Amino acid sequence: MKILVLTNLYPPHYVGGYELRCAAITEALRLRGHDVQVITSNHGVQGSPPIAEPHVDRSLRIHGYYGHPWLGLRALKYLELHNNQTLLAALTVLRPDVVHVWCMGGLSKSLCLTLQRSGVPTVYDVSDHWILRSLTADVWLDWWNRGHGSFASRIHRALWTLCGVRRRCDAIAPTSPVSEIRFQRLYFTSARLRELTAQQGYDVMHGGVIHCPVDTSLFQGTPVRRSPKKWLWVGRLAEDKGILTALRALLLIKTAFAGTLHVYGRGEEAYVTMLKNFASEHDLPVAWHSATPAEMPDVYRAHDALLFTSEWEEPFALTPLEAMACGLPVIGTMTGGSRELFRHGQNAVTYDAGAATQLAERILLLQSEDHLRTTIAEAGHREVHERFAMAPIVDQVENYLRESIPA
Length: 407
What we know:
This protein is α/β, with parallel strands linked by helices.
């Protein structure tokens, strides 16, 4: 297949797992012999020496995300025209069999309408809430179609329409309302993310579900059977990640807890300071660390159990997958896509998000029950290596792309 990948960020310039997964699957498809070209933004490359990337074009521009400014309407018009002209040129030159669209956060959503007009088969990989949350917030499409706004804004829009500016822009950078975007072929990283998106009124329940993969050549280890002494927490230090619930649970069982919680993550300074003060004031056995992505496989293998305390609708979290692949037993919440991974007492121990007392009970349970600990560590390890390794997930993506191309 000739595949054009469209995404907002592409490593080595990335924010999180979405971009890393895009690159991993893109490279895996290239290794399988497909002709894959990437078109992405220039985020992170301005002022940097160019890197030889024959299959990556970093010409698109980001608006309002990742430190890029929100532009006034005239400057935004030129950005929209630039992004759409760049995409149209790529479609003309590359003539792809299919376009594989990843995260569109910060990119012009008018690009979706341009792809729709082009008639080129398009597949969307939806791994976060960009459709659910940011599609209707797109400044360009919203400005042209809003029925509200200041008097000056309404006059400006009317003048641009009467003078033919809208018609000329629309020929290159579509100005149609978001409601005209159709997602005919798409897949989500969890059924829960698909459900949440549909609840916002989008026609997406026909979409598939392809879960996130783990590089099991890196994240691997022997299932942990020993009584946990070194407990692990990994993630963004923020309220929605439930780290404070973990600390409150430790406070409830401080005299019975036979270990140390090692926290790996970063967050906003004020919140991190509050967490550290809480742990210090209550004399909790907590150690604070940070690590690079390359160091994380060794971090998992150096610990005995993972606490996954997320309290928001995670699309499909990688952290528990990585821990399970390395052999750790996991205690986790059932928010978001995690309900499609965890089965209480079988491959994990679960509790209600935000329930510190219940989490405390689960920690003591895993600490004392050797058979339970061994069972979930072995089952989780086996399932991740069988179902969520890179090869079977790439198989699913490859098949979905192929099936999206008319015979």
